[in-house]
Amino acid sequence: MLLNDAGLSTTYERRDQFAFWQEVPPIDGYPAVVLDARGDPRFAYGSCPLYVGVTDQLEFSIFGSVFGDQRGKVDPCELTRQAAALMLQTMKS
Asked: Which residues span the domain enclosing 7?
C-alpha cells in the first residue's frame, strides 16, 4: 500500500501520463480509479493498480494480482476492491 498526502486530485492531475485510466464505482463511498502506464492491466497482466481517495489530503493505492491459470479469466480488480473495502473498514475503526 502506498499513501499520498495530497489526495486523489494529484493523481487526476497526472491522468494524461497513463495509457489506461478508468474511474470505477466508489468503494464504500470513496472515489476510486484504476490506472496503468502500459495499458489495461487487468487481463493483459493479471493486475489491478487501484487508487482510492480517502480525504482531500489522503489517497492510498493497493495493487492486486491473479496468477497462473486464473490470469485472463478472473478480474483482479474485483479482488482488489474487496481488499480496499476491508482496509477502509479498518481505517474507520
From this structure: 2-92
Helices (H) and strands (E) in the chain, counts: 3, 5
Domain count, the chain: 1
Contact 48, 71 (CB under 8 A): no
> CB count, 10 Å around CB of 61?
18
Quote the pLDDT of residue 3: 63
* Alpha-carbon distance values, 12 to 7, 76, 84 (Å): 9, 22, 19
Write down the pTM of the prediction: 0.87
pLDDT(24) > 70: yes
Assign 3-state DSSP to the chain and report helix, strand, coil percentages, each to 5: 35, 40, 25
* Average pLDDT score over residue span 73-85: 91
